[in-house]
Amino acid sequence: MKFKRTLLSMAVIAATLGLTACDDDTHNIDVNVTVPDGDGTLPPVDEGDKPVCPPTGDGDCDDKPSTENPVIDMGVHIPVDLSGMDVTRYVNPFIGTGNLGNTYPGATTPNGMVQLSPNNGSNGWEYISGYYYHDARTSGFSHTHLSGAGAGDLNDILVMPINSRSDFMINEGSATLNLEASHFKHKDEQATAGYYKVELLDYDITAELTASDRVGVHRYTFPRDTKSEIIVNTGFKLNWDYTSDSFIRWDKENNRLIGHRLSDGWAASQKEYFVMEFDQPIKNVRFAYYDKETKQYVNAPADFTEIGSIKGSQTYDAVNDRDVFGKYQYARAYVEFDTEKQGLAVEAKLALSSTAIGNDGTNKAPLTGAFLNLTEVDNKNFDDVRLEATNEWEALLGKVKVEGDETYKQTFYTAMYHAFLGQTTHSDIDGKYYRAFQGRNAYPNGRPSWGKEAPLVDDVRLADANNDGKADFTRYDTFSLWDTYRNVQPLASIFTPNALADVVLSMLSYAEEEFTPLDAAGTASESRKGRLPEWTFKGNETGMMMGMHSTPVIYDVLAKGILDARMTELGFSQADQNDIKARLITAMVTDARGKTSQGVSWIGEYEKNGWVPAQLHDTETDSYGKHSPFKDSWTASYSLEYSMNDWMIAKSIALVFGKDDPRYTEFANRSNNWQAQFDFGGEAHTPWKGWFKARDNNGQFIDKNWTDPITGGNTGKDWRPDMFNWAFSESNGWQYFFSVQHDIHGLKDLMTQADRKFNPEAKEGELFAARLDEYWSTYPDRNAGDNQFPVFNTGNVGQHVQGNEPDLHVSYLYNYVGQPWKTQAAIAASTNVCYDNTADGICGNDDFGTLSSWFVFRALGFYPVNAGSIYEIGTPMFETASIDVGNGQSFNVVAKNVSRENIFIQNATFNGKTFNRTYLTHEEIMYGGDLVFTMGDTPNKQWGAAADSTPPDTGIGEFLHEKSLPVGAR
């Protein structure tokens, strides 16, 4: 929902600059709306069909629901009303399932292994989560999903109830799909945290879903019918995912199925083993598979009680150098129940494990694998499991209680919910988990003829941080770190610190696990270790995105004492604790040095030069490569992000070993390498001075009239900061300009130096503030023929992109130049363009809660610009927000007079004393206290403006590469 015209958007910036605004298509339009204090202009705000009411309300025209009778607005969906619900009533899992959000609406627990959610059955980018709101068909409910990602995988083990009333099928994108399906209406669909329900119209079947951490629980209410079945589909694949092997066995004696699905996709080797139990007697099971000769699904012989092989069906054809996939690669079981005389409700429990189907205990050996995980729901029916899931979410989401704007309460609690859908449980109850080291499930024997595709090397490991042979922590995975380090993990540091500590121990295991590599011919080499996660899930490092962004998470748990507290709780000795912290330092340093790093892009060049060189393509490239003239279009991003990682490493070393450790000085100095990409000058007659730019192999900045020293070619156009795919990841020079989160004061000071090169009278911070003003007030030209806008460029306010990660901190940066009132306006504008309580209510990929976590912090009134212990003050959203920080204490944020008009801080107190700082510390929050703001509809330009009110200077070390900069760059 948008703020009203009388307050909004860039009220203050507009007052300063006299802006024009943009409509939904970002075409510039003239506006002449008076700012409350009478000067300048404002962008318009779409009011929709809602009347504009006076702030106090006037009976018929009152847009603020009563807090005594809160209105839960779920659109056409009927709100869920089940026992145990309090704050979970406000969770709307449909938010983000349309547009670009890529979230899913199904049932899961906080950081759960199982994500049991509907699948439409179609391929495509909008179906990455398996579910796209604007497609009212479903082909079933699979047990693993990615929330808000930009690439597709998972959707393991699809379950679909059917009967004889319909033969509706979906077959889009691949003949191997051919899915039984049903239409549905959104008015017949309900969801909340831990629960999902839908009416399958083609079959008149009610489907309900819930989950424990490792078990998906289904309830299907069938009408009377001559034949009612539940399909268990292990062959289902979607988008990047590829089924390499299926196995299903009907265990008649125990009224259950066991099986596995092995797959290859974005994560190269995925293994899901399962046990599925039913509470009603199975009448019959028939099996079907995809016949590769006739290219259609056929029934297996009627006497089959299993299909596929429990050991896997792939074989290797050495003569033709190819893997032969099993005949039953794409397999399904049709589990029939007796509904001939009356309808029937069937409950099914499906437990997952990445390690094994496991031992069921009949041989007196311990339970293992999926059988062990199934014990989470022993002696519990659907309603029992649902109530436990609700209680888990209530315990987590209830750690913060907000009061005020009822509509934003739904967005807030849904955003909190989304923030805990990543960092998923990967280990079984006994601490065992699957780990893939090299190769692919699709080619487990490698491809010698290719000369590079090595055989699959994988293993089952134990979550054992202190190496005593006993499981101790929960092994997590699904680390979308380029996105989530910015705010998801900082949010977890407040609400789930123990889980965050286990996340870091999981990261350490990724770095330390040894394996023996095999070359394409299967020859073993010396054993080696891995690396800290970049983008991992299901025991695989995908190499997606960039950076060493485990480092800010590691530093955070060290600096906040979270890891110490968790290790003490686990019973680790002091020697063990010291050892683990030392090993974390070793893992970070190993990744950050060229000679020892395992796969960190360009780290050797960065370590040597302080920057990463760019060059033009020197060979014909594919269609993806043609999106940029450069072989690598992210070179400037590497330097900016690696320097931030270096800062995190240096600060971690200081905590564990002290600043006298020479590695501290090494990485403190490296943390200044962002300066190596900053050009004071530029070619004559170009206006682009004082910008981050790419550099070539001779160290020259790539600007006007540039020639590549390697290829002799040129780009055919001059550089400007709005050019995409030149040097910045998913962004341009505007959107990455402020990506020096660890040293904002250093960036401000360097810009002042650049400014004074051409204007000796320039004031401290003047260019920084002016660049921010320009950033928020000028829109890119989307019609420029020489530019290519990426799909990620969404949620625009000026050059700002709220729908992607690099810009998320920028709205808070006016605090660094004593203009926090502009920060408050910028935050309001960013909220307007990106968030509302609808399916389309997240303006970009949510990336495992990253855009959502921004909203949570924004609503609370503070944000971790550098993903750590300092939180910059923004503008609070609610009248009260009370955070349970443990030990019987709470941190309370009170915003007097706050409304959608009153976004500007007039004054503040902290624990009864005048408060003019524009930042908080983590320690202050976790100690508890009362932060009270008085809000108004016009800015108080004095509050937070003093030099000693700005966030602290966090720069460390020295820049060692200034002498190697090109002439004119300084």
From TrEMBL:
The EC number(s) this enzyme carries: 3.2.1.-
Chain ranges of the Glycosyl hydrolase family 92 N-terminal domain: 90-353
Signal peptide start and end residues: 1-21
Keyword Hydrolase: yes
Alphabetically ordered keywords of this record: Glycosidase, Hydrolase, Signal
Every Glycosyl hydrolase family domain range: 372-937
Domain of life of the source: Bacteria
Entries under Pfam families matching the protein: Glyco_hydro_92 (PF07971), Glyco_hydro_92N (PF17678)
Gene Ontology molecular function, alphabetical: hydrolase activity, acting on glycosyl bonds
UniProt xrefs under NCBIfam families: aman2_put (TIGR01180)
Protein name according to UniProt: GH92 family glycosyl hydrolase
The organism of origin for this protein: Photobacterium piscicola
